[in-house]
Amino acid sequence: MITAEKKKKNKFLPNFEKQSIYSLRYDEMQQWLIDHGQQKFRAKQIFEWLYQ
Question: Which residues form a coiled coil (predicted)?
Answer without folding.
Answer: none
